[in-house]
Design goal:
single chain; alpha+beta; three-stranded antiparallel β-sheet
């Protein structure tokens, strides 16, 4: 009888701690995504303000400069309202490269 009460208390605390850890992990995940999006936006804004060109960068260039994976860069770009996607075409007019460019309020 005493053991079942103690077991119930431990089970309740375990459930509470599990929920707290899950909420903290999700918060960390969302914060990490937000930081990566801001890094991408800031880098593209700096490149555009440098004035050497239009500030368009390929995903491969961004992978090398930001140290993020292709998936992370595309995720951040598609979530951002400041990053515009521009398609480059080959000699036959078919899409062959994706450029990302900072554009204030691109959507």
């Amino acid at each position: 009888m005493v053991y079942s009460n103690a077991l119930q208390i431990v089970a309740h605390w375990a459930a509470i701690l599990t929920a707290a850890v899950a909420a903290a992990a999700y918060g960390g995940y969302v914060l990490d995504r937000w930081h990566k999006q801001k890094r991408l936006e800031e880098y593209l804004r700096e490149q555009k303000q440098a004035g050497k060109d239009r500030g368009q960068r390929t995903v491969l260039h961004l992978i090398a400069r930001l140290g993020m994976t292709e998936t992370q860069i595309l995720d951040a770009a598609f979530r951002s309202r400041h990053v515009q996607r521009v398609i480059g075409t080959d000699s036959q007019g078919r899409a062959d490269v994706l450029f990302l460019e900072y554009a204030n309020g691109a959507r």
